[in-house]
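I keep forgetting this: the sequence line spells out the residues, with the fold written below as integer tokens. I include a record here:
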Amino acid sequence: MSHAVSAAQSAIVGEPEVLEDDVIFPLVSLAHAAESSAAWLALKAAVSALRPLQVQDGSIPNTEHHADARALVSAIAENLRTFVPVFPHDEAYLRAAAVDFEHWSTRAFPVPDFFDSLAAFQPQLHRIDGLRHLVVFPMYTQNGSTDRLVEAVIVEVIWPEFVAALEAGDYSNKLFVPIRFVDFTDGYDTNSAVLFPETIAMRAVPTFTWGAIFADREAARFRRVVREASAITKLELPADAVRLLDDQHLAEETFVMWDLIHDRTHMRGDLPFDPFMIKQRMPYFLYSLEELRCDLTAYREAVRLERAEDTDEVTRDHAKLVQYTVLFDRIFRFAITGNRVRNYDGVGGQLLFAWLHQHHVLHWTDTRLTIDWADVPEVVIALGHEIEELYWRSIDRPKTAHWLAAYELVSATLTPHPASNWARVVDSRRDLPLDGPPKGFTDAVLPDEFPLSMFYEALGKKMADVIESTAGLTGRD
């Protein structure tokens, strides 16, 4: 055993400096004790103390804070190097991150630049079930904060065999990395369930090679919200849905399958725009349709896999469960989570619920929610086909004509706000700046263009405490 590894073991595990000859600590064991180690606790404390010194763009402009910041950054860099033998698959990243922190310090803490360490971090190359990563970057946490502060997180890869087989077959997605939380700093004590490279502070935008999603948080939120919502609405859940609510591990694996297909769908199909719509300013209901398109594709493929004769039993079981996760997460959590300002996921959830109701497979009668389960797949898939048809036709349309067609699709099912300019028609023309630039169209969209229905207003009030309680939730809670 090298001196470096021995020293790291002492720092990580807290063992005495002199080890018995017959005591050997495999590196994997060290990684699975990292969150309780002295090195992690010191690193996490340094990051937590550094964050209040930063402003929104990640810099530290107040020179009075620089002495403290230099000491904290030195501790972060030292502990990152300590973890090299513990996470050997991330050695290049850990060393590069330490250097990036030191360069930031020597340049007097300008807007951070972690391009080099981001380029060195390649988790998609090691998709092994249970493998851990320690990640420290200045970044904003999507759905959490727009402040680009330093965050530290230990994550664990979720990569069951049936998902590996799907990815190796018809559902290839080399960028997709499903993970679960082990420990994290305050920026992730929020609703954020992603770790995306584009949120990290860097001098240039590289070709992104990975995207990580916290399936444990998604599963835990789903289980808590759906259990409460089904009780409030008196919905009798099928036995398979009950299994999901009772089993965190099963729910995590189901979400990984959903996310695998959803994520790859952003890059596939008849796309009239950049698949991720990065740096595009457009009416937010366009984002609603894109996210819903990807979810409904996952639903459709889950139905196909469940029905296919050559599907193995493990995959078939999870395919059935994916259908419940898409349906219930959309109509119970997405629709009433977050504020009403350009809430595109909220609109997607409302649209799916209203579509099911108006196609007579979902019923709210005698203050009880019932669903005709045998008829649901055909109706859900039909909505997916409507969005796909919109996309296919829009390739031949001008941008604003596509936007208008998308609005017609949504407003055919959801009632717009009474004050909506988009919904108002004057002399057979919409009350929009049709002869101006597209910016005018976007500006005319109300912050809450499609308000909650009376059903959702009532449900939202009853579910408010439960929805709020899911912030910061992990699979361990």
About this structure: The radius of gyration is 24 Å. Confidence is low (pLDDT under 50) at residues 1-28.
